[in-house]
Design brief:
alpha/beta; 272 residues
């Protein structure tokens, strides 16, 4: 997978649109228009700040199901992503939480979105939703049935979870790529807003052998120059929000600060 083909830049900054609660979720507020309006504001702020792509998540649907989401969630996310695609000229990805990759790739394939995020593609993780088993065999066959070229970005030892057994990071990366056939991998810290260490990213990058490695949590404009030394891009949410608080709206000034920090890293890397 060549990130340049999707994002038209090395080291892309992918901002996250956290959707307000959707129909059937515990905190659903009853107005899909309000959810859409908020999503449009978030996407516009990301584009205005210079982000290179965005990913749409049903983040505020917690507590999540570990398997297939309700059809109303799929319907709502399809509608919202379609609206965002007419609003901003950025590559768009989809993550149906907690791990409904089949629905994500269905939405992405129908709308010609570019990629999905899968929290558990291979292995077994103990999570607050219970045990989640990777279903790479189903997902890859379903992508082929759909005749789709949507790329699969897969978390390795995903945040808010513990692996069953004790796979080391190198083995987990290799198996996600070689046996799970992920197009790219994502390395996060232990929880939302917590970054991986540079050492973890270096181990993952060495094991990935050219497959893109993305930072999945905790990146901010102060640490991104260090973390990007061993990564190919970043998925960013918390640090782009007003006051750095997850419930707040995205601040285009924070987005531009983050993008500028990545640009400075690229300039320093290019200097002899």
């Amino acid at each position: 997978m060549d990130l340049n083909q999707i994002f038209k830049t090395p080291n892309p900054v992918i901002g996250v649109v956290h959707l307000w609660p959707l129909p059937t979720s515990p905190r659903w507020g009853g107005s899909l228009k309000a959810v859409i309006d908020r999503a449009e504001q978030e996407a516009t702020a990301l584009a205005a700040g210079g982000a290179h792509g965005l990913i749409v998540e049903n983040f505020f649907d917690a507590p999540f199901t570990k398997g297939q989401v309700d059809p109303a969630v799929v319907s709502a996310m399809t509608l919202i992503v379609q609206r965002l695609m007419t609003l901003v000229a950025l590559p768009i990805g989809i993550n149906v939480l907690r791990n409904d990759a089949r629905s994500a790739i269905a939405i992405a394939s129908c709308l010609k979105a570019q990629f999905i995020r899968v929290n558990v593609l291979t292995g077994v993780m103990a999570t607050d939703q219970g045990l989640i088993e990777g279903e790479a065999h189903h997902l890859l066959r379903y992508r082929r049935e759909l005749g789709s070229d949507v790329k699969i970005l897969a978390d390795v030892l995903v945040k808010h979870a513990q692996p069953l057994g004790a796979p080391d990071l190198t083995t987990a990366v290799q198996e996600t790529i070689e046996r799970g056939l992920a197009d790219g991998i994502i390395i996060s810290g232990l929880a939302t807003g917590t970054p991986p260490s540079l050492e973890e990213l270096q181990l993952a990058s060495a094991a990935a052998q050219g497959t893109p490695v993305l930072i999945g949590s905790g990146a901010n404009w102060e640490n991104i120059g260090t973390l990007m030394q061993a990564a190919d891009g970043a998925i960013v949410s918390s640090s782009l929000k007003r006051h750095g608080q997850i419930e707040q709206p995205i601040d285009p000034i924070r987005v531009s600060q983050f993008v500028e920090a990545v640009r400075r890293f690229q300039q320093a890397k290019a200097e002899p």
